[in-house]
Predict the structure.
Amino acid sequence: MTGIAVRIRGWPERHPIPFLIVAPITWLALYFTLIPLSEGLVGLLPIDRASHLGGAIQFFFYDAPKVLMLLTAVVFVMGMINSYFTPERTRALLAGRSEGISNVMAASLGVVTPFCSCSAVPLFIGFVQAGVPLGVTFSFLISAPMVNEVALTLLFGLFGWKVALAYLGLGLSIAIVAGWVIGRLKMESYLEEWVRNIPRTAASFESAGLSLAERLQGGFAAVGEVVGKVWLYVLAGIAIGAAIHGYVPEDFMASVMGRDVWWAVPLAVVIGIPMYTNAAGIIPIVQALLAKGAALGTVLAFMMSVIALSLPEMIILRKVLKLRLIITFIVVVGSGILLVGYVFNAIF
Amino acid sequence: MKDIKVLGSGCNNCKNTVKLIEQIAAEKGVQIQIEKVEDMQKIVSYNIMATPGVVVDGQVVHAGGVPPRSKVESWF
């Protein structure tokens, strides 16, 4: 029995290419069964499908597996892509280039390079040591936590591709411009003393030469780690969405965060600063806010503020940055988010 | 006896890495001296760009995320 189990377990790693062909097909097949399956499940329950409860439950049965499947697929693919974009390679790509283009590259690389808040300092130092300009480093530091595949997937799965695309575009724009502005302010002297005294290193990079099987392993590990951490938040978010879908009538009144109030966006940004949660944790709140009539621009601004201006990360960065630079960072990024919120509300 | 340092500022990944290493060392019956380095300046001196990082007998063997089981086993 153990022999069979062992043979099944290592199967994808031992035959990576067949797996990469079979998996998407299986995934798609499962995806298309979700609607009939959810309807079937609701049919089995002793409730009226046309009732509010029936509507809410069908929504949940359909959306929960749908979003979790999307998330698993995207995290897996990103886990594989991440194995190509290590911090070392990113640094080598950015070192010594002039600003402007570098800011765009840094922000884009932030999306595909794996990043964890506690790595912020070693990563920052590593970049500075190798001669990556300060502004470019900031572009990376802004986009990496904020524009990540979890946020994008959840926004896409729950609110549609337009919202996800808006978040991606706006997030990258803020990262690029804010990083560039900070670079222009020439605040290198506001790095802590010991950081400026660190010896320089070369930005050269040797590819680790991972095999496809190892990259597959990376994908699986990412799924276990990320989906394992956020699935509960996702279900909570969908449950709220389901309740709203089933019970809240189509026309509702705009509330405090509605688009008519000029101070809604600044309020959203300011409230977001002391709050911190990962991308998935904020989704239930986003669901609830949108349903209560909050304007999309305001809600996106809130979401970005919570993730990008995270107090724990600021506290960690305080070890390498002087207070004035941290405040500059918060002001520049905060202003960017503010602007984005207003513009978005004005256009849509 | 192997000298192992786990570099990290104290988040969950770092704690889990320590646990994993101690567990596998016990399984393999290898004696280790394990130390958690949380001071940022010391961590940075090892030139890693992501935490948790692992140093075995003076050599950096891993940086970034909890190391996979197979990797930890290869150090013993």
